[in-house]
Amino acid sequence: MADDKKGRNKQADDEERRQRKRELEEARDRGDEAEPEPVDGAAGERLGDLDEALEEQEYPTTTEEVIEAHGDHEVEAQEGWKSVDEVLTPVDDETYESADDVRSRIQGLIRRG
Fold it and tell me: What's this model's pTM, rounded to 2 decimal places?
């Protein structure tokens, strides 16, 4: 291949295609791997006793129902311990499809502080 601009551009394009192909193959290979377990501080962080209570909750559920059932549970926020009632009261009444949805919402609120 001639060493001109057109040839260099073709080589670069070919290399980009090969790189994308390698990345896709690696992603497919990793698709069979199990997800890693969450570590402390990760998005999957647990909320102590509240986790078990949330798992027993019937879903879908609303913010109001979560407060009614679990408002007295305490969670550790950036500025100290708060009840679930304190954490969720400022939130509009939302619908949650699972314990993970509620957990994620609470964790997002307590991290904002």
Answer: 0.59
